[in-house]
Amino acid sequence: MIQIPRLNPNNTIFPLASTALDEPNGLLAFGGDLSPQRILAAYHQGIFPWFNPGDPILWWSPNPRAVVFPKELHISKSLRKTLRKSVYSVTFDQCFTDVMRACAAPRNHAEETEGNGTWISEDIIAGYSALHKRGIAHSVEVWLGDDLVGGLYGLALGKIFFGESMFSRADNASKVGFAHLVQQLKLWDFQLIDCQVANEHLFSLGAVEIPREEFQEFLLNFSYLPPPFSLPWPIQAITAWD
Q1: By three-state DSSP, how is residue 80 classified?
Q2: Is the pLDDT of residue 112 over 50?
Q3: What is the residue-wise DSSP string for 81-139?
Q4: Which of 68, 31, 80, 91 is nearest to 182 (CA)?
Q5: Which residues of 202-215 are buried (b: 16+ CB within 10 A; e: fewer)?
Q6: Distance (Å, rounded) from C-alpha 35 to C-alpha 38?
Q7: How far is the C-alpha of 17 from the C-alpha of 10, rounded, in Å?
Q8: Which of 50, 103, 174, 179 is least surrounded, with the fewest CB atoms within 10 Å of its CB?
Q9: Domains plus CATH for the chain?
């Protein structure tokens, strides 16, 4: 029987990430809440919540860690063609909760490879929306005309962006949003994008895996720096996708 620590509801102290289980990979603790204070304490230590609705809150720190270095973004020929055509328009921080709810909805578009999104509960939405109001959580919106057809959300701490989830309702829509985000983060000298656990969708965008210890070094060195902007994040038009 798997035994993991239960978090103390009276503080935001977590076990060391290095004590996380090997199987299932990264399971560290359970319990606590999704208050902004606890979520921030977790992310600064390389820990994140992930659990099914109705289950206890589970906290994870997998090893290895999937990341994207902004300078190593991979843009495929088909994605580059879409970007050059400017099929979609992209905004930041215009409808954060809408993006979260779209990520939470069941998915059936061919581009999606991250599961059905139903782990994003109302408590998750409330917790991250509170962080959005503080200027810590951010959204990327991809539009086809007036229709929201793709996007993603995550947290920005210092010079590290923690990607949480993305959705797509049209070809390459989430990839277009991610490409715009990475280009902006590169301009702002962000050092790392956390993708948590790798999948083929992320590998196609340039994700790599690094040891947990290396990831935590990045957190120590870059996650406590001041943020580049308050809400909403500005977006700079990109005229060339070479």
Answers
A1: helix
A2: no
A3: HHHHHT-SEEEESS-HHHHHHHHHS----TT--S---TT--HHHHHHHHHHHHTT-EEE
A4: 68
A5: beebbbebbebeeb
A6: 5
A7: 20
A8: 50
A9: 17-62 (3.30.70.3550), 66-222 (3.40.630.70)
φ, ψ of residue 208 to 5 degrees: the values are -130, 170
pLDDT at 229: 77
Question: How is residue 139 written in tokens?
Answer: 């959204």
| Helix or strand run (H / E) with residue 44 | helix 36-44
Token reading at 84: 């050059």
SS3 state of residue 10: coil
Candidate from 153-162, 185-194, 230-239 with smallest mean pLDDT: 230-239
Instruction: Tell me the pLDDT band of 240, cut-offs 50, 70 and 90.
Output: low
Integer Cα distance of 151 and 154 in angstroms: 11
Over residues 43-62, mean pLDDT: 95
Over residues 24-29, the mean pLDDT reads 98
pLDDT at 107 over 70: no
Q: Which pTM was predicted?
A: 0.93
Please compute Rg for the chain using Cα positions. 17
Q: Return d(Cα 138, Cα 162) in angstroms, integer.
A: 10
